[in-house]
Amino acid sequence: MTNQDYLKLLVEGIHSSVVATIGTDGHPQTRTIDMMLWDEEGVYFLTAKGKAFYDQLMNQQYIALSATKDKKSVPLRGKIQNIGSEKLDEIFEKNFYMQKIYPDGTREALEVFRLYEASGEFFDISDPSHVVRDSIIIGRPQSAVSGYFVGNACIGCKLCYSVCPQKCIDISAKPVVIDQNRCLHCGRCAEICPKQTIEKRG
User: Fold this and answer.
1) What HEC string does the chain produce?
2) Which of 85, 109, 137, 194 is 20 to 30 A distant from 2 in Cα terms?
3) Taking the model in full, what pTM does it have?
């Protein structure tokens, strides 16, 4: 699947996301926000200008979100920008229920935000014996590679494979190779490696 496929899944397949910002007390605060629209420039959502959430978005210009449905999840974190009423009409056309929440001229209370530079992942455990993980990138965020990686000191002992829940380590090569799209990031391989050559990154 491509980044665009994942954004489509987020907006059209899952729709409701838990979005986190920092509250005025300095602690994380979450609320459920519908992701209304997606295109090549990012993901769009909206909120009313009178809400504390709006103030946090304007001040912090950064969010983390997590959406999950049917054992598939899309967590993202990144930069947002207020685009005012741009795309508001399109959002109301594609999300008809909003016309009942904000009828007639009351939609003027709303402003649209775009998540335009973000990174995250797609995670699918619908088949528990064969999980799927993939990276998602919107724009050009600065993101560190995460996961477990095998160094050149690997001796090919295969102990890592013996403790891997998903058996997602290719032991035909040396150094062995971890399939990042199936790895659970449990860390058991790093713990058992006699050469301590498996590195956790990110």
Assistant:
1) CCHHHHHHHHHHHHCEEEEEEECCCCCEEEEEEECCEEECCEEEEEEECCCHHHHHHHHHCEEEEEEEECCEEEEEEEEEEEEECCCHHHHHHHCCCHHHHCCHHHHHHEEEEEEEEEEEEEEECCCCCCCEEEEEEECCCCCCCCEEEECCCCCCCCHHHHHCCCCCEECCCCCCEECCCCCCCCCHHHHHCCCCCEEEEC
2) 85
3) 0.84
- Stretch 72-83: mean pLDDT, rounded? 97
Give the pLDDT mean for 123-136: 94
Q: How many residues does the chain have?
A: 202
